[in-house]
What we know:
Elements (H helix, E strand, L loop, with lengths): L1 H17 L8 E2 L3 E7 L11 H7 L3 E6 L5 E7 L7 E2 L2 E2 H18 L3 E8 L2 E8 L2 H13 L23 E7 L7 H11 L3 E8 L1 H5 L7 E3 L6 E3 L2 H25 L3 E6 L5 H15 L1
Parallel strand pairs: 4-7, 4-9, 9-10, 10-13
Antiparallel strand pairs: 1-3, 2-3, 5-6, 7-8, 11-12
Helix pairs in contact: 1-3, 1-4, 3-4
Protein name: DUF58 domain-containing protein
Organism: Pedobacter gandavensis
InterPro entries: DUF58, vWFA_dom_sf
Amino acid sequence: MAIKQLSLSAKMTIDGFMSGIHKSTVKGPGLEFSQYRSYQPGDDLRSLDWKMFARSDRYYIRESEVETNISIRLLVDASASMGHQDGAFRKIDYARYLAASLAYLGNLQGDAIGLYVFKDAGIFSMVAKQDFQHLARLFYQLEQITPDGTFTKPIHYKELYAGAQKRELLIFVTDLYELKQEIFDLLDTLNTLKHEVLVFHLMSGNEMSLDFKGYTTFEDLETGKTIQIDQESARAAYQENLKGHLDKIKNKMLDRRISYRLIQTDQPLDQALRDFLNQRNKLKT
């Protein structure tokens, strides 16, 4: 039942999001006919349509739609910090629905979709494929994710090098919580693959505002360490430090030429989906 709900939610999210958005295609030499246009000096003469010339005594270029399908790998952080909760909603829940919606949208556009889950003991991987049976299996695996332990160690990153050699879009959904630079080490590894990388950074509303309904004791979900905090007196300094931290993250992403988007888990998915479409359009050009 949970799998059906995830699938239905992804479909409803995408159908609602795509309502009113017109399909955009890239024109050029290809297999599927698109349109004719007048010949311009410098055009490839091999694209001239001589039958149209015979009928009209004018030169026309026959254009087709370029095949732009790509492979998309969804990378999901399943370390314990993704179990952080704001009200009844956890980061991993948001990540699950975001990944499902992106998978559904990619499949709808004819892209091959793969899934890589970063767990404490290693990486669970599903190679990228393009069919609805594969999509159903991907939804099933998303439902099985249970955040636990620390982030995956580099010894397991060999899984990332498997797969096709053509260009890919790697979408990493994470809260960017790290102990010793391990997530940015992963991003450096992803950059060596020469693919486009898009990072969705998840933070909850209570993290952003330091508003935990009167709690004074806080526990690190990955190390188990605890700390006592007076939220009222610490809030101003906390928010200032958080702003500096987020600015530093943005600069690190910029240095690595990685597309980055901070998302609060109490916000709708629309902006994340728009960012996905923008990044996919970059791969087409």
